[in-house]
Specification:
It is a single chain. By secondary structure, the chain is α+β, with helices and mostly antiparallel strands. About 50% of the residues lie in helices and about 15% in strands. The chain contains eleven helices and ten strands. A hairpin with a 2-residue loop joins strand 9 and strand 10. The longest helix has about 35 residues. The chain is globular. Belongs to the acyl-CoA dehydrogenase family. It catalyses: a 2,3-saturated acyl-CoA + A = a 2,3-dehydroacyl-CoA + AH2.
Length: about 375
């Protein structure tokens, strides 16, 4: 087994890290305070080829692999987890759905501007009464001539209100329950599509999340993704990839928190010595380092399998269970090492803890991942 990253993976890391330090770091704290989504940052990522890393060159992508993509999400999330969310939803979730389930014509029309970063994508599945219980969604899509007419309200749509394209799930045959759900591609300017006021959130505050309101939204029949009734299976496959992107985001947050904690411990002098001279602090840092390395191996293994077309649902679920939990633990310990300063918003560890929490929730809660893991290992 060879755990050495290839030259192209290292170059991807260096490219993204340089961008994050130069373009993201200076304004990250202010964007968080102001809850401001800055589209120009996504445009800069597009110019660097970051928005379409794993997709074919013929569709405007970098034709690398999913490991390179999670490395990019990880590096960005070290500096600004809000922008990490923007990219993860766009490249690891919504664009991946298009690449896997769209027709050639749909890929030409939609994957190309997504991979090139001309368009920003969103994924809209959750409803007020249908979170983990996806089959209970109430949004409907009625076949009417050459169109589908969609009605309903989605909640917690990441990139909602700023995206150019939405992957939306609706019931085309409510009588069939889980088998009556279909997936659709909706452009932002299609009549009947509006978005609500952005949610005010605890973390990733510069990443936009909003309601998606469909009121007699008429779209061409050609905009169905896959076949009627295939929507739930598409959503579940999509979340396999999406939760891997979120795990990479959590990994970046965890790494940043560890870096801040280690650096602070080495420079903060108490009782005439740095904090790092205390065995209690050394043990904290050692435990954080072990958890961090384990988390990275889980994420990279899942991405390696995805890149080779191997089943990766179980590994993705394991990563999504473990890595966000580790991110919360490491961020919390980083605050503890900082003492009172860790509770002050001028220090980044405070923001990292707030940002880490959502990674335990979206694209499938930690609890739901444990259900999936149990089903897989018990053959249920």
């Amino acid at each position: 087994m060879d755990f050495t990253l290839s030259k192209i993976h290292e170059q991807t890391r260096e490219l993204v890290r340089a961008f994050a330090q130069k373009d993201l770091a200076p304004g990250a704290q202010t964007r968080d305070e102001d809850e401001h989504f800055d589209r120009s940052l996504f445009d800069k990522m597009a110019n660097l080829g970051i928005t379409g890393i794993p997709y074919p060159e013929k569709y405007g992508g970098g034709e690398l692999d999913h490991l390179a993509n999670v490395i990019a999400i990880e590096e960005i999330s070290k500096v600004d987890a809000s922008v990490g969310s923007d990219l993860s939803i766009h490249s690891a979730l919504a664009s991946w759905v298009i690449s896997e389930f769209a027709t050639d014509a749909q890929k030409e029309r939609y994957l190309t501007p997504l991979a090139e970063g001309q368009w920003l994508a969103a994924f809209s599945l959750t409803e007020a009464n249908a979170g983990s219980d996806t089959a209970s969604l109430r949004t409907t899509a009625v076949h009417d001539g050459n169109s589908y007419v969609l009605n309903g309200t989605k909640v917690f749509t990441s990139n909602g209100g700023v995206a150019d394209l939405y992957i939306v799930f609706a019931k085309t045959d409510p009588a069939k329950g889980r088998d009556g759900i279909s997936a659709f591609i909706i452009e932002k300017d299609m009549k009947g599509l509006t978005t609500g006021v952005p949610e005010r959130k605890m973390g990733i505050r510069a990443h936009t999340v909003s309601e998606l309101i469909l009121d007699e939204c008429r779209i061409p029949c050609d905009n169905i993704l896959g076949q009627e009734g295939q929507g739930l299976s598409i959503a579940m496959r999509a979340l396999e990839s999406g939760r891997l992107g979120m795990s990479a985001q959590a990994l970046g947050i965890a790494q940043a928190a560890y870096n801040h904690a280690r650096n602070y411990a080495q420079t903060r002098i108490q009782f005439g010595n740095p904090l790092s001279s205390l065995q209690s602090i050394q043990f904290k840092l050692a435990e954080m380092a072990v958890k961090l390395e384990t988390a990275r191996l889980l994420v990279y293994q899942a991405a390696w399998r995805q890149s080779r077309g191997l089943p990766f649902a179980l590994q993705s679920a394991m990563a999504k269970t473990y890595v966000p939990t580790v991110a919360m633990e490491i961020a919390n310990e980083a605050i503890q090492i900082h003492g009172g300063y860790g509770f002050i918003r001028d220090f980044q560890v405070e923001r990292l803890l707030r940002d880490a929490k959502i990674t335990q929730i979206y694209t499938g809660t930690v609890e739901m991942q444990k259900v999936e893991i149990a089903r897989a290992i018990l053959g249920l």
